[in-house]
Task: inverse folding
């Protein structure tokens, strides 16, 4: 009975997971803070809404979101994924990132092309408006 419950729980969590991106590259030590847990990132890890990405000295991470957005973080970076909604059939889009520190490269995907006003890249001194483009930003 317990085995059936565990198997069912696993499949239900998979079906209703909030995976929004995948780690494609990693160098050094990078982590995702999810709730109270710190997850050491590896290639293939899935990211979720409200994850905070953290890179250490001499480290970097490259991520591809489900809409094709490409995000790279350099060393000593901290970035929170506040919201991600990509439902093109329903025309529902939302992508909010809060970049607190470090160096980032961002190339918008489908959300930035279909609904650029739905993408917010927050930095400590303001917000970067996305209009289907690629940019680099450094926050000290």
Result:
């Amino acid at each position: 009975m317990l085995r059936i419950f565990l198997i069912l729980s696993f499949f239900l969590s998979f079906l209703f997971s909030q995976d929004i991106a995948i780690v494609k590259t990693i160098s050094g030590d990078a982590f995702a803070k999810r709730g109270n847990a710190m997850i050491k990132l590896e290639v293939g890890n899935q990211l979720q809404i409200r994850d905070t990405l953290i890179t250490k000295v001499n480290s970097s991470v490259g991520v591809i979101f489900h809409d094709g957005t490409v995000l790279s973080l350099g060393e000593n970076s901290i970035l929170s994924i506040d919201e991600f909604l990509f439902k093109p059939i329903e025309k529902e889009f939302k992508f909010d990132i809060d970049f607190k520190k470090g160096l980032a490269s961002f190339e918008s995907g489908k959300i930035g092309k279909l609904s650029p006003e739905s993408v917010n890249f927050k930095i400590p001194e303001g917000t970067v408006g996305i209009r289907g483009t690629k940019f680099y930003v450094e926050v000290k």
Observations:
- Residues 5-16 have pLDDT under 50 and may be disordered.
